[in-house]
Design goal:
single chain, alpha/beta, three-stranded parallel β-sheet, 2 domains
């Protein structure tokens, strides 16, 4: 431990104060990554007295999850990055304006809604999932494998089938009384997601490179059940099924996102 020069740790790790207790460890800098996930009232280690601190994050990404509903009501889920951005004139701020993670068609919406179209795309337009499909899809289904695809279930004109695309409330039988005791599922969306997943697997896409994400725990359980029922495909357990929060910071070749909420009013 006396020879340590660089320490990697989670923000609340008890390991940090332990290392800082060594007189030989005198770091000149502390880098806080994913700062938008660190709550502003997070306790800093007492000995964390660096000469320089670099805070890295994106204020437009997911905020930290409050530990309970009361914390959210009292706005205790603000991050240290939020606090810095409110007083950014006091700090030296640098904006990274290039992105290398996804195709320009995928980033276009976020770029216009959150970044004032200032993000510069550095990925190759020709590098899409279609390049990895073996065999290639039939021409009539070709657009389903574009970099960004939106399937609008409200276009279903048959009244009975359209009703089948609506969300359903699913009540939890286990939980504390003060907690929200229901979630949402959408069976039609789950079926569409699984059908697309099956087609990707048939075209030799690695299950570990696919993620199926959704905002609701009820939909996660439904998707997980449907995945487990697929007997014709191996290693389905390698496919990520979860919330956006659970996939934060990870990368996948294909992401299927089930929004769940759909009703006559929306």
């Amino acid at each position: 431990m006396e020879d340590v020069r660089i320490v990697f740790a989670t923000f609340s790790s008890g390991f940090v104060p332990k290392v800082l207790s060594f007189s030989t460890f005198d770091p000149c800098m502390c880098v806080i990554d994913e700062a938008s996930q660190v709550v502003a009232n997070q306790t800093f280690p007492e000995d964390l007295k660096m000469k320089k601190m670099v805070v890295v994050g994106d204020p437009n990404q997911l905020p930290p999850l409050p530990p309970h509903a009361e914390a959210k009501e009292k706005c205790l889920n603000a991050s240290i990055l939020d606090q810095i951005m409110r007083k950014r004139d006091r700090f030296s701020c640098v904006t990274l304006g290039e992105q290398y993670r996804c195709h320009r068609d995928i980033i276009r919406w976020s770029n216009s809604c959150f970044y004032q179209n200032k993000l510069v795309n550095r990925t190759r337009d020709a590098n899409t999932i279609r390049c990895a499909l073996k065999p290639s899809p039939q021409r009539k289904f070709d657009k389903l494998y574009d970099p960004f695809v939106f399937i609008d279930t409200s276009l279903q004109k048959d009244v009975e089938k359209r009703t089948g695309t609506f969300e359903q409330i699913q009540y939890n039988t286990i939980g504390f009384a003060e907690e929200k005791n229901y979630t949402y599922i959408n069976i039609a969306e789950a079926d569409i997601a699984i059908e697309h997943y099956k087609n990707l697997r048939k075209m030799r896409i690695d299950p570990a490179s696919i993620a199926i994400l959704t905002p609701y725990t009820g939909q996660i359980d439904l998707l997980q059940t449907k995945i487990e029922e697929l007997k014709d495909f191996k290693d389905c357990h390698l496919t990520k099924i979860g919330t956006v929060d659970s996939a934060q910071g990870q990368g996948y070749d294909v992401v299927i996102f089930s929004m769940v909420r759909s009703n006559p009013q929306s």
